[in-house]
What does this fold into?
Amino acid sequence: MTGTNDPTNDEMLVETDVSDGLSAAESSVTDDAETVIESKDINVWYGDDHALTDISMEIPENSVTAMIGPSGCGKSTFLRCINRMNDLIDVARVEGDLTLRGKNVYDDDVDPVALRRRVGMVFQKPNPFPKSIYDNVVYGLKIQGIDGDYDQIVEDSLKRAALWDEVKDRLHESGLDLSGGQQQRLCIARAIATDPEVLLMDEPASALDPVATSQIEDLVEELAEDYTVVIVTHNMQQAARISDKTAVFLTGGELVEFDDTQKIFENPESQRVEDYITGKFG
Amino acid sequence: MATEQDSSYAQGFGQVSRTAGLVFRYLLLAATMFGIVTLAVLLVYVANDAIQPLTADAGWHLTFFLTLVLPTILVGGALYRRNREALKLGGMVVGALLVSLLFSGGVAIVFVDIIPPLTGFSYAVGLAVAVAGTVLLTKYETQIPFTARVAATGLLFFLSLFGVPGYFHSIPELVQQAPVVPTDWIILTLVLGGLTALVVGQYIARVREDTKAGVAAGASALVLTALGAIVGPFVGIDANALVVVTAVSFVPTAAYAGGSVITREELKPGLVFAATVIVGALVGAVAVDALGFAGPQAWTDWQFLTSSHSGSAENAGLYPAIGGSILLMVTVAALSFPLGVGAAVYLEEYAPDNRFTRFIDVNISNLAGVPSVVYGLLGLGVFVTYLGQATGTVLIGGATLALLILPIVIISSREAIRSVPNDMRQASYGMGATRWQTVRNVVLPEAFPGILTGTILALGRAIGETAPLIMIGAPNVVFNLPTELSSKVSAMPLQVYAWSSLFASEDFYTKAVPAGVVVLLAVLLAMNSIAIVLRNKYESET
It folds into this structure.
């Protein structure tokens, strides 16, 4: 759809087949879906603080994977491992393997900047640039050197982010003049304008009111048709509504259970997960 | 029953003593007022000495009261009650006119007296050719690798500005040797008027969201500037001077007023206020002339601003020192801005947090507090003794003052860069931007107004410095404008200092010194007002 391929994409992450056939077979509902992201024994330290312990999971293609858990359990940290945003924190140290389409993103030959061009990210607080709406959407295209019909890409991206009708007459006004929910949808439009493979969302609706939240939720479900969406959320109902698979992180940075959303919410295997979901803990 | 219960309940709270708080509050007020009042009294005293308003005829005061003060109060008062925003715009327009008039004086000194118009024109043409070439290069050839493009751009600028001696004439040389050269006012109209037209045109095009309106505005700005040169000689003003004043002051002020009214219709009454003040001042001036009332015998007068030092206080002037200060400021800005902002960006965005950078941090803060005379000594030691430069030139004066304000520029730029929200950097990195792209596209544009404000305030400190200039051997008295970087230079504070020390006499103390101080303060306030306007604009936008 939008955008053309960035030449740097082809140089990096050459392998596209799934390296580990077993993992795809193991997941029960989306049996036929390819695993896009696979983590094996990921450990993260912030200085001496052990933030994540031995996280292993496989995230299937074109689905919504939710990560839930109490504050400080490391779900955002795991999300930031996927596009190596943790590299920007001096004291952070990551160990283990995390593969994107079979290529370990922590290999020495992987350029984190090139990696982030294929993995879009939406942050907790809406953070549009103090530029016009149009310039916000084309930012990624410009810095990645993608040519194309920018007007068309802007229109497509804003339409996919369900924002086009509200802003089509004021594309050249500042993105900061929008409401919080609109700003977040602008950030989503900005992230999908460059047509990434994976979309990471770090509590995208936590700073928004209920109406804006439900708009974002609808949007996430639609985006999952074309993108692999990984979403961190505080809100268990939200995870239940929109996700196909759910990972429950609990205090201490462990992944306690990872399964189909329905199973997690109806019949979790772990007692701790059941306590958390029913509100007895966390 | 209920009320009874309420009152007894309320009585039950008792009272909390605020005596200590009240005492503290009024002590703070007293401390604030002490400083402000002392400074105000001092300034009024100096201004009174310099302008001597009481020497004017009573009729002069009355005329101006009737034509200027009274209408201003009436219109201003009416607007204050009805449309405060419009009054603010009116005030801004008047202020912009005054400040830009001051600046047009400076520009006139630089582009008419210091740089001969033909030389300026030839270099402007050279620069324009180089810039046009660079734009073409980036627009149509995106395949050239980065380093080759930088090299090509550098070569283009070098060749068009300097040429290759003996083989290839530079563009300035070609222009200067051209058989037919335009007269000075045409040159000034083309260069200054052209620049103004460009800025005004873009501003109006943005405000009206209409390219045609922008082109029309730019064209009329150019025509107005040319008109200044044609009308000038008829009203007894030098054509060159009027071109500069029109291009730097009148046209931009008019564009600002027009643009503000276009964006916000309801501000239109503000222009009435501005017109009242301007027309009132003009009518007053014509009226006192016609009625024959004598104005105040101010020491800060046209003669003072346009002549050089003289043995008698009545004939002494500040002209070479004003020109010297302007040249020094240009040199200081050209040196300290790139160095300071570069260091600030490195320290904030690139430098790792280790012992070495923390050591540098502490030392920059300390350097900002080092007395200026020490920087003078440094300048003398490094530039004169070690590098063997002549003493007291524009270049080493500017370099010494640039060193002096460098820590301040670095600190304020770092502050501005640090105030860019981290969210925006994260967003940029998350999009797959490199560090350079993030700095270039997100951090610097957002921090730029703050950086500019800090730099202007730092320049304000440099313009008032005397000690470093004395240390590097700047002459106390210069009779001609410095025309090159290697000319001897004096500066306003140095000239004032010389009058109050070397030529100390009752006459100089009471006439030349206050007049010089008032000019220095006016220039300083004009610079600071730009910084304040920038900061307000920046704060209201975010």
Summary: The first helix of chain A runs from residue 7 to 11. Confidence is low (pLDDT under 50) at residues 1-31 of chain A. DSSP finds twelve helices and ten strands in chain A.
